Amino acid sequence: MSPPGTEHPMPGNTLPRRTAGSTPTVLGLRQNLAQFMLLVAVNALVGGTLGQERTVLPLLASRTFHLDLYTGALTYILAFGLSKAAMNYFAGTLSDRYGRKPVLIAGWLAAVPVPLMLIFGPSWGWIVAANVLLGVSQGLTWSTAVIMKMDLVGPKQRGLAMGFNEAAGYLGVAVTALATGYLATAYGLRPAPFLLGAAYIALGLGLTVLAVRETHHHARAEAAQHAKGRGTAHAGLTTGQVFTLTSFKDRSLSAASQAGLVNNLNDGLAWGLFPVLFAGAGLDLGQIGILAAAYPAAWGAAQLVTGAASDRWGRKWFIAAGMLVQAGALAIIASAHGFGPWLAAAVVLGLGTAMVYPTLLAAIGDVAHPTWRARSVGVYRLWRDGGFAVGALLSGVLADLYGIPTAIAAVGVLTAASGVVVAVRMRGNDHTAG
């Protein structure tokens, strides 16, 4: 019996959907290259909006607001993770109901107050509140950018599309983390680093309003092709059914959801504790900025290769191996000391994450039917970005009780265990391009 939603479309990327006065809807990267690359640029700005915090905010917690306990200092990541996870869930449902572009615009509007709150916030509560808004914005913008690229390219190039999407986003994170490290060194922790984020938000909102076009009709065209092909089984699921299928019932979808959660659990650890670990070892802000950028830079660039490779060779083993590579890198960071070993381990951590990140999204797109794919992506991203909240709590408590190296090592063990779950539970033949 075929797993839910794995009905393969008929060959070819041209899926006509004719209405009076309209031209056929065509799927494929080449056929939609201009809009696709515009959405890549938009997602780079989304990543940059997040990257404004990666180097500076952990140091702002300790140096400006004098938060001594790691658990308290990481509350901004907890707030970010919870709000982003929730918005990921709603982004899919809202984009199915109202269209993709309005949701993308709403996400940018939610980000507008964030730089001002980070610059002028007089207490740590303001920083936490800013991260609630940032999470809302990231959930709506990043999820919708993912969904729109899946809409445009069709089933044959999902891994490649997700590689481009995630590469753009995390290279945006990396470049901005590096830039804000140097801005903080030259001009202080506030306001200069966050002015860069304000510029990103203005540019992203302007591009979205003026140039981005709706893509929902591409998903409807692909769904129509399913109906012409092997039937419409599993096409009419409710949102509750999509949630249960993605979270628990379907082996591949649920394996991807737990791996996404653990992946962002260790990313939350890296975001919140790595700069504090490096500063405690005597590294200056410039070196901390390089280390904070190296991990997402390797992650971002390598996804251009790993996403496309998973189209050819399948998703399962890329994901399982990538989780194990991340676990090894975390073990090195926990046990090493000094800029050189930490830089090498950060690059390895980024490479392992690159094997996992676009491949998980492509795996969701493979299994989910076009009529509920946006909602399934939202559910997956709910679990995945819930990992930020879990990571902030777990790593903060462990760091307070046993120190940062122990917290990093414990998260490394969890990451390895997640890779084993993928190897055991995920089906190996769900990708459509093999």
TrEMBL record:
Gene3D superfamilies xrefs: MFS general substrate transporter like domains (1.20.1250.20)
Record's subcellular location: Cell membrane
InterPro entries: MFS, MFS_dom, MFS_trans_sf, MFS_Transporters, Sugar_transporter_CS
Alphabetic keyword roster: Cell membrane, Membrane, Transmembrane, Transmembrane helix, Transport
Main location: membrane
Domain Major facilitator superfamily (MFS) profile: 27-427
Membrane topology qualifier: Multi-pass membrane protein
Transmembrane segments: 70-91, 103-120, 126-147, 168-188, 194-212, 317-336, 342-361, 382-398, 404-424
Pfam families referenced in this protein's UniProt entry, alphabetically: MFS_1 (PF07690)
Chain segments carrying region Disordered: 1-21
Record protein name field: MFS family permease
Source organism (scientific name): Pseudarthrobacter enclensis
Organismal lineage: Bacteria, Bacillati, Actinomycetota, Actinomycetes, Micrococcales
